Amino acid sequence: MKIAACEGKSELILIQHLIERGVFFAKAEELLDDRPIHMRQLKEQAPIINALDINEDIEVYRIGDTQKDLYDLSGFEARKKKIKIFKICTKPEIEILIIIAEGLFQDYCKKRISPKEYVKIYIKKYKSIEKYIESHDIIPAIIEYKKLKLHKKGELYLADFIRDN
C-alpha cells in the first residue's frame, strides 16, 4: 500500500493533478483511499492503516516544503518494520514551480521576498494554485526545479516521481 501524504493544500492539489494526468508514479488505485491525503502525522490515518493486513508493506510518500518533523510511529509498533518513509521535498514552496514555469526564476532570485509573495505581485494571471495548475503544464517546471535546487541527503525531488506517459 502506498500513502501520498501531503503536508499542505497546495501539495494535495498538485499531486491530485499529477495523478489525474497519469504522470505520478502511483495510480489512484494504488494509494490509500485511492487519493493523496492531507496529513502531517501518520497516526491521523491509524484506523485505516491498522485495518490493512499486518504483513502488508506500507510506503509513505511525505510530500511537503519542509521535512523537519519526524513521523511518530507510536501505535504502529507491530508494523514498524513494514513502514518505509520517503521524503519528497517541494521547498521552498509550490509557488516556486509557477515562477519557473513563467520563466521568471532569475528575476525572482534578485528579489528578497517569498515565492508566494512574488507570485502574487509579479504574475498577473495567477488566481490560485489550483487554477494555475489546471490551466498550465507544470511538469516541465517540476523537472527544471530539480536542476536548479539542491536538497538535503534523503530528500527526494518531485521530479523523481514523475513518469513518462
What does this structure look like?
The chain contains seven helices and five strands; from the N terminus they run βαβαββαααααβ. The protein has helices spanning 9-21, 46-50, 95-101, 105-110, 115-122, 129-135, 139-148, and strands at 2-6, 37-38, 58-64, 83-89, 155-157. It has a five-stranded parallel β-sheet.
Comma- or semicolon-separated keywords:
165 residues; alpha/beta; 34% helix; 15% strand; elongated
How many strands, which pairing sense, and closed or not: the largest β-sheet?
A: 5 strands, parallel
The strands making up the biggest β-sheet line up spatially as 2-1-3-4-5
> How would you spell out the order of helices and strands?
EHEHEEHHHHHE
Radius of gyration, in angstroms, nearest whole number:
17 Å
The fraction of residues in strands falls at 5-15%
Unreliable residue stretches = none
List the total number of helices: 7
Q: Into which percent range does the helicity of residues fall?
A: 25-40%
How many E strands?
Answer: 5
Span between termini: 23 Å
